[in-house]
Structures are given as C-alpha cells and as structure tokens.
Amino acid sequence: MTATIEPEVGKARTRKEDARLITGRTRWTDNLTLPGLLHVAVLRSPYAHAKINGIDTSEAKTKPGVVAVYTAADLDPDGSIGMPCAWPITPDMKSPRRPILAADRVNFAGEGVAVVVARSKAEAQDALEAIDVDYEELPVVLGLENALAEGAPLVHEELGTNRNALWVFDSGEAGSGGNVEEAIASAEVVVKRRFRQQRLIPAFMEPRSCVVDPTGAQIVMWSATQVPHILKTMAALTLGIPEHKLRVIAPDVGGGFGGKIAVLPEETMCLLLAQKLGKPVKWTESRSETMLAAHHGRDQIQDITISAKRDGTVTGLKVELLADMGAYLGLVGPGVPILGAFMFNAIYKIPAYHFACTNVFTNTTLTDAYRGAGRPEATFGIERIMDELAAELGMDPMELREKNWIKHEEFPYTTVSTLTYDSGNYEAATEKAMQLFDYHGLRREQRERRERNDPVQLGIGISTFTEMCGLAPSRVLGSLDYAAGGWEHASVRMLPTGKVEVVTGASAHGQGHETAWSQIVADQLGVPFEDVEVIHGDTQSSHKGMDTYGSRSLAVGGIAVVKAAEKVVAKARTIAAHLMECSPDDLEFAQGKFTVRGTDKSTTIQDVCFATFAAHNLPDGMEPTLDSEAVFDPENFSFPHGTHLCAAEVDTETGRVTLRKYVCVDDVGAVVNPLIVEGQIHGGLAQGIAQALFEEAVFDESGTLTTGTFADYLLPSAADLPSFTTDRTETPSTTNPLGVKGVGEAGTIASTPAVVNAIVDAVRHLGVNDIEMPCSPMRVWAAIHRGSKDAGGLGSEAGGGLGSIDASGGAQ
Questions:
Q1: Residue-by-residue DSSP string for 404-437
Q2: First and final CA of the chain: distance in angstroms?
Q3: Cβ-contact 694, 719 below 8 angstroms
Q4: Which residue in 248, 251, 264 sits closest to 206, CA to CA?
Q5: In the 8-state DSSP scheme, what is residue 7?
Q6: For the chain, does the N or the C end have fewer beta carbons within 10 angstroms?
Q7: In what order do the strands lie in the sheet containing 112-118?
C-alpha cells in the first residue's frame, strides 16, 4: 500500500527564511559593498516653509573624502523631474511637483536641499555641516482646519489653495441605497461625533536604503523597497531610462508596513548620481531621517453622523473626512482615504450612506499608505460610532451590532458601498470570541466595580470588523483612476531532477512567502516541501509583478502560483499519457503521481520531468519543457473578518490604562500556515494597540517634528502588551481556488477601536464619550476630570480627549 503524503497546506511549518533572517546571515541593501563604492548624504531643511535665497557648497567640496556636492540646479537644472503620484482620485486633483531636491523653496522640515557624495559615509555626513543655505522663513500652515481657513498660508502658492481634492460617494446617486439626508432627518435617534486619527510613523526595522551600480550593461539598483517592479517602471518613466536597461533588486528587506511602498527622491537621486559619476553609490538613512522624511500615516479628522430607529436599527451613515496629505502627494497617498470609503459600512446593513473626503496640504511630511491604508481609519470610525449609538440607546453594544450585521445565510451580500462580500460568518466568530473572553462575566464585574465606586474601573471594548484584501481587481482600480492593475504573476520551473523553482512577483519583506509558496506548490505538484525554492525580489529573474501591499500576497500572488502549477500538471499529464500509451483523460493525478485509472500503472512527476529534459520520447509538436507561468487578476477582493474583544482597567485617579485581557477570533478563510497567520495577527495587534495607547507624530508650532527619535516617539515592547488569546473560524473565500483571504493587516485594523472602546466604556459613566488617541494617562485623567464637570462629555463636537486641537492637530 502506498503511504499517504500529509498535505502541506494547513501545516504549521517554521519558516524557511528565518535561519538567515534572524541570524543576520543574509543580504540587505546597506551591507552591500561594491568596488569603488561612494556614499551619499542628504542635507535636509530645518524649516517647514522657507525660500531658498542661495546655497554655498564651496567649503563642503574641500572637505576630506568629498567627491562632489550637488544642488537641484546641478541635478535637475530645468526642474522637470518630479516624484510620481499613481492615484489621481479626481480629474481636478491638484498635484504639485515634488522635486528630488528643493530648488527655491522648502515645504516641510526634512526636505532635501543638497547632497554630498564622498568616499565614506562619515565623510559625506561631516561635509553636510559645511554647506551654507540662506533661508528666508515663510508662514507655516499646520492642522487640517487651519489649512482650509480663509486667509491661511499656502503650502503651494501657485495652486491658490491648500485643498488637494474632494472625493464623494453617495448611495442615493450610486443606486446602492437611499438618501442619507432623508434618513437622518426622519430618524428617531441621531448621533454625531468627531474622531481624530493621529499621525503615525511607520517604524520598520531596517531604514530605507539604496545602492546603484551603473558600471555594467544595465544599471542595477538595490533598494529596501516593498515594490521593486513598480519602482523599476516609475524610475524609468521619471528619468527616461530605457526600462530594459534598468534592473531593480529588493534583497531581504527588514519590514515595510506600507512605509516602503513609495518611489523615493533619494532613489531617483542615486540613479542620477551614479550615472553622472560613473561609479556605484549608496544612500542609507539614519533612524532620525526615517522619522523626519519618510512618509507618515493616518492623520484624519472624521465627522460621523449615524441615524437609527429607537430599536437600534441603523438607517443611515454620513462620513465627512479631512485627510492630511502633508506637503506633497505620495505614490498612492490621495487614494488611501478612498480605500476606507468602501469600509465605513463594515459588516452592517446600512440602507443609506454618504462619504465625502477632502484631502489637504500642510507644511508637514507627506502621508501615504501605512498598514491597513484607509481601512483601519474606517473601522475605527464605524466601531466607535456604533458604541456611541449603543450608549445613546441604552443597549449593549454587542446587541446593537448583532441587530445590524449581515447574517451568514445572506452571503454573498452587496453592500451600500457597492462591494459584494462573498462569504462570512460573523455570528460564529463572535460567539467563539465571547466564550473565550467570558463577556457576560466581565460585564457583571464591571457593574460591581461601578456600584462600589472602585477607583479602578473596568471597560469592555468591541470591534467586529471586516476588510477588503487582495488589492485588487484591475477593473475596480481602473474605475477609481488608479494608474496600474491589481494582477500578479508567477512561474513554476521544473528542473530535470524533479526539483522546483517558483518565481513570484509578490516581493516579500518579512511575511514568509518562501515558506507558504513552498507549501502550496508541494501540494499542487506532489513534491517534497524541501524540493521547492522560491525566487523573488529581482526584476530580472521575476520580470513581472505588482509586489506586496494591501494584504494581497497570498490572495493574489499565491493564486498565480496555483494557476502556474496547474499548467505544469497539464503539460506533464500529456507527456505522461504519451509515455504510458494512454489517453490523458484516463490519468488521475494525486500526490505527485500519474496513475492510469483502474490500473496500478503509474509514473511520478519527477520521472516525467527527466523524460521531458531528455526529450527522447515526447508527443509530436510538444516542447521539451514543463515550465509554466500564469497571471492572476482577482474577480473580487477577499473579505476576512473577525471579532476582537478587549478588557481594559482604567485607574480614575491617575489615568493609567492596563489591558487586562485581549481576545480575537479572526476568519481569514483557508489557512496555508497557522504559524505565519499567528505571527501576522500578533504583529498587527501590536501596531493597532500602539496607535490606541502610545504612538503619535507631533509637530510644534513652527512645523518641527518633536517626536523624531524613539525617545520621543513611543513604541511598545512586549512588556507593554498583554498576552493575546487568538483563535479562528474558517469561512473559505469563494473567489479563489484556495479559499484564502488576507491576514497581514487584520490585527492592526481591528485592535485600535477595540482598545479605545474599552477605555471609553470604563469611564463613560463619568461623563466621557471620547478620548483622543493615543490614550495616554494624561489624556485619560483630563477627560475624566472634564467629564465630571461637563454632562455632555467629550468629543461630541471638539473631537479631542482634551477638547482642543493645536496647530499640528494634536491635543493640547
């Protein structure tokens, strides 16, 4: 009897790549050394807004080791080079040129104004101090409402406004629902709130880095990027380099979280410098440069109105956003809030919906995609307003959610925002989460603490969420005016000895693709897991791809791998049938073996590989190769969901918040590797909780970033976080053959509102209905004390835990 091979998909495999990654025995951009390598350092403006009256580089050119010093006049004399923005969300969107170096004006503190090339990194850095820039300070505009106020200073005078674009979705006009103004006017209950999404800084492990070698037949760029294929195309278009003469390599990349999705001025600069000097150059930023000049995330004001019947049935939702773009537009920055537009309705059956987003320029670091990209902001808004509605109605917040959510028998379900959710079971995930959490027991304890006026109050926070993953069907992206598609490419190469090389366009930066793709292919072809090698991150070996972001790697890239493997099997079937003198229709394929149906006559796929290589006995007209490639363009997004529950203890005397218990039950469809899923969930939870409690980028009144180091920008350690209780339900996606959904951003999306809801729930009886993030002890304490004096609570109109917004948009 032939032994059954245990399936790889679903197995908790430790990651193949970890042996080299966690020991540092790998290749990352900054450890590359090439013959004659020169080092690049960038001089950055200390001012958020200023004219440049002159730049004197003469002394810097005399410093030891300095090879050259350049300004914008040297690298881009006609001012024609600008960083790309791939998402013009409206026809009239204003898109000012973002230069590689500022020429006559700087628009945010940290913008590059000059560059030094030297024989060592230290010499390049030292020479920056010898560059003399004559700045003339200009008025600075900070804060979204300040920027839109009449007479506000303009970031870009030539535009005549700080308004970048207005994007609107209305369910009445779209035909997907009713008129929201009518729903609000006729409602029995209306709740309005303003929520603030503070600005965050992607704190990836590896700073951004770039090496360019111009000395071969091709220009080769190594970059710590999430998007080598997009970078190659955009760099070629920006600089006019023939695309076939440019090769981009993303070696092992130490994290990204969206923070490495951009096409950088520094990458463009390095290409120009390498060509100009005829030698390889390297730029690696410091951690302070990362925090100052790499793009930031979030930064929105959300004005939300929800209407309902007295029994809790939601009748309408109106969302008005202000989104801070910073001083320039990022690669996809304008579209980030638009992704959220489709998720404010979340898991709920909302009959009328209106969304309007105004994107705004300010004199700050630009914003762009950050883990979740629009969906965390939307989930926070809807889950917070659902809690506020429950409080207004005197209902248990879970009861309110259950009354309004889509039931499992109603899938597929087309939402008021026009998306069709293919599958889900919110009831099952919630029931399991409530059992693990002891929801009713903790509610009893909460009541008891309130009755005895315990100084440490208990709050329970809920987040029942869904998200749109697998970015994205190309036709949908086209309808939203995005510049590119959402397909992904893969190829499967069969070697003569039966070993397998998988080439994927989804370029990993820590997610575990090499392991997961090996598991998928092992099952598809019936070969050992150890016999599969995964190749990625090099546009020469992986010539097609749309890269990694938006929880798309598995749901799009992984399915391309499946499709390529299916083509390999189809070719092998034809050759196997020829070898065994039977019809291909008579062959069964399982566990790597072709068997003539009803007989014991068989051959392995490895035998077919070698026979194909030898090519001695192939069907007429058959090429001697099993290699195959495929491009997968999803027909729909995937929609993972889950229920996250948080118990928070709030010391009413000090404002200290302690997370006592955190339970999440996620449904990410079929699971390829439970260990990878668990790791993604844990990492996502840490980032989402960090937004709720710790992280905030703050600028002072002059536009200087005051949180430019980890001494000021607080990242949590394991000691600052609770132990997580995690579990899963499984509702397979119906739109891909593996039934998988995304997982990379789920924890971040769901956890922030769960934590803030828990904190507000703990002190709501003290007159508090909002606390601005991050919910620091100071903010919590002040909210409690203000709440005791103000029966209206906090946040209804002013939007902040402390009630006022300073120039940077943060709480005072």
A1: HBPPGGG-SEE-TTS-EE----HHHHHHHHHHHH
A2: 74
A3: no
A4: 251
A5: P
A6: N
A7: 66-71, 112-118, 38-44, 281-284, 209-213, 219-223, 246-249
Distance CA 374, CA 335 (A): 8
Q: What is the pLDDT of residues 565-610, one digit of tens each?
A: 999 999 999 999 999 999 999 999 999 999 999 999 999 999 999 9
Query: Can you tell me the distance from the alpha carbon of 676 to that of 17, in angstroms, rounded to the nearest whole number?
Result: 12
Structure tokens at 278: 């005829």
721-775: per-residue pLDDT in tens?
A: 999 999 999 999 999 999 999 999 999 999 999 999 999 999 999 999 999 999 9
For residue 189, give the amino acid letter.
Answer: V
What average pLDDT does range 21-29 have in this prediction? 92
Q: Which residues contact 587 (CB under 8 A, 6 or more apart)?
A: 573, 576, 577, 580, 594, 595, 596, 597
Q: What is the pTM of this model?
A: 0.95
Residues 251, 254, 257, 262, CA torsion sign: negative
C-beta of residue 221 within 8 angstroms of C-beta of residue 267: yes
Cβ neighbours of residue 577 closer than 8 Å, sequence gap 6 or more: 583, 584, 586, 587, 594
**Helices (DSSP H) in 605-664: which residue ranges?**
605-614
β-bridge partners, 458 = 649
Q: Rounded to 5 degrees, what are φ and ψ at 465?
A: -130, 160
The answer to whether 139 and 807 have CB atoms below 8 angstroms apart is no
What is the model's pLDDT at position 686?
97
* Rg of the chain, C-alpha, whole Å: 28
Q: Scanning the structure block, which residue is given the tokens 């071969």?
A: 216
Q: Is 429 helix (H, G, I), strand (E, B) or coil?
A: helix
| Concatenated DSSP letters of 548-579 | S-TT-IIIIIIHHHHHHHHHHHHHHHHHHHHH
Helix (H) / strand (E) containing 679: helix 674-693
* DSSP at 538: B
676 close to 515: Cβ distance less than 8 angstroms: yes
How is residue 566 written in tokens? 């299916």
**pLDDT tens digits for 114-140?**
999 999 999 999 999 999 999 999 999
Q: 3-class SS at 671?
A: coil
Number of Cβ within a 10 Å radius of residue 16: 21
Tell me, what amino acid is at 732?
Answer: P
Amino acid at 273: L
Tokens 């399991």, located at residue = 432
CA pair distance 12, 566, nearest whole angstrom: 24
Closest alpha carbon to 511 in 768, 253, 316, 308: 253
Return the closest-CA partner of residue 750 out of 679, 806, 691.
691
